[in-house]
Amino acid sequence: MLTEWLDYQRSEFQRKLRDLSPNRLVEWSIPPVELSVLGLFRHMTQMEHVFLGWGLGGGERADHYGDDDYAGGSVETIDVDLALYLAEVEKANASVAALPLLDSLGVGHGRPLGATLVKMIDEYALHSGQAHMLRYAALGEIIR
After folding, report:
1. Which of these, 31, 41, 19, lies nearest to 136 by C-alpha position?
2. What is the DSSP letter of 72?
């Protein structure tokens, strides 16, 4: 059930890309907040890595964007940023599938699988709501 909720939250988060031109995707549409829909995708790339991909599966821990995940990105980086996000989701899914029980500990961060899944569901719920409002602001209208 937890992996199904995570899949649902990811799907809803990814829907926030629709109807946005490249310029609107990177726009800080609610001044003075230095945050864009692309910035949220960059942030979730890091969260997928830290909590699921590396966190559960181990290996090399990467800091993809440093302090520049939320505010960073540009029209020129969109394709690379979204490809990296999808690659981290794929690694995360493999790491989740490799652990047999909800109390299995992650190889990277040492936290239980179940608690880590709940954390990621929460991350997606929070940032999907933010992306929803940023998307509306960037579009200048409510398009559901």
Report:
1. 19
2. -
Closest CA to 108 of 54, 63, 62, 64: 54
Report the C-alpha gap between 32 and 22 in whole angstroms. Answer: 20
CATH 1.20.120 fits 2-60+68-139, yes or no: yes
User: Residues in the chain, how many?
Assistant: 144
Per-residue pLDDT reduced to its tens digit, 14-60: 999 999 999 999 999 998 888 999 999 999 999 999 999 999 999 99
So where are the chain's domains?
A: 2-60+68-139
> How much is the pTM?
0.94
60 with 143: CB under 8 angstroms? Answer: no
| Other beta carbons within 10 Å of 53 | 26
